[in-house]
Amino acid sequence: MMDGNAKKPVIVRNALPEDAEEICRVHFLSVTGLAADCYTPRQIELWTGGMKPKVLLKQLPAEGAECLVAQSGDSLLGFGIILGNEIRAVYVRPDAAGHSVGRQLVQGLEQIGRAGGHDGFLLNASLNAQGFYEAMGYTVQRKDAFALNDNESMACVVMSKHT
Questions:
Q1: Over the range 105-141, which residues count as b (16 or more CB within 10 Å of their CB) and which as e?
Q2: Of 22, 14, 10, which is closest to residue 68 (Cα–Cα)?
Q3: What are the backbone dihedrals phi and psi of residue 3, each rounded to the nearest 5 degrees, phi first?
Q4: Tens digits of per-residue pLDDT, 72-97?
Q5: What does pTM read for this prediction?
Q6: Measured between alpha carbons, how far is 19 from 22 in angstroms, rounded to an integer?
Q7: I need a surface site. Which of 26, 61, 93, 109 has the fewest CB within 10 A?
């Protein structure tokens, strides 16, 4: 992984307000680096444009969503967001993909959900992430489209898991 953190442990913790800018950076790197083969440049542009610090600092907390980050040393490697039983986001930097960072984030989000009384989880997986979630025990419910704005959407897969 980047920044010489390959041998440092990954710690999953609650996101802090000062993480907002770096979370947005991780989101951009993840989408552009891991999903570009599955979506058009316009879809990627709209998708990456939706993650802003104000969303993380105001909108998500107002909705009751919780955000976790995965950190190694002083580098943020990924983040995840859950609201109730819906996993809203899991993103990792491309150089952290395949190193169990996403797995640790999903497990942390599921733990939050179970603590809130949920025994099943839902999510909209991007096409590039479907195999990851299947490996985590999620099953496909249906193919769908996620609205990026009033005129554009992107293909996704609705998935669920019961624990």
A1: bbebbbebbeeeebeebbbbbbebbbebbeebebeee
A2: 14
A3: 65, 25
A4: 999 999 999 999 999 999 999 999 99
A5: 0.93
A6: 5
A7: 61
